[in-house]
Design goal:
Helix content is about 30%, strand content about 35%. The chain is built from four helices and seven strands.
């Protein structure tokens, strides 16, 4: 089940994300944020009308995704960046597809017109997921992150959330 995140999901979100921080390159964080960070983020996203979703089964958070304004400057207000993380033992079970699909719809309903994916480590699974959901490659930054003793790229992908500018992507 995909649903809106609640502040009481923060501990499970923190644990899930912490695993990715400690073991993966999709995030360039090197220290996992505390539970309070996630609780505050859920509240902040809700207050701004931006989507923060979780995939849940039997009370367990299996993944989460959110869309926040791409940058703080006012001209970016119609462009969001997505973030999506799946529990390591549940990757490959369709959770990412369900979450990202729901996030695209929720971001559109929130008034965003474009969604960007900033894929840390150029993670192939994330690139494949975003491609499956209609994102197109829009750029690559080489060697911009350093984690686990190696330099990492970022891949940018983009998709229109409405009819405008679809032909220009």
């Amino acid at each position: 089940m995909v649903r809106a995140a609640r502040p009481d999901d923060a501990a499970q979100i923190a644990a899930l994300y912490g695993h990715h921080v400690r073991h993966g390159t999709a995030t360039f964080d090197t220290e996992p944020p505390p539970v309070e960070h996630w609780r505050d983020m859920v509240d902040s996203m809700r207050a701004r009308g931006w989507p923060f979703l979780v995939a849940e089964a039997d009370g367990a958070v299996l993944g989460f995704a959110y869309a926040a304004q791409f940058r703080d400057r006012p001209a970016y207000r119609h462009c969001c960046e997505d973030s999506i993380y799946i529990r390591a033992d549940r990757v490959g079970h369709g959770i990412g597809t369900a979450l990202l699909g729901a996030l695209v719809e929720a971001a559109r309903a929130s008034g965003f017109a474009q969604m960007l994916a900033v894929i840390g480590g150029a993670e192939p699974a994330s690139v494949a997921l975003h491609t499956k959901l209609g994102f197109r490659h829009s750029g690559r930054m080489k060697n911009v992150g350093y984690k686990f003793g190696r330099w990492l790229d970022i891949v940018y992908m983009q998709r229109a959330l409405g009819a405008h500018d679809e032909e220009n992507l």
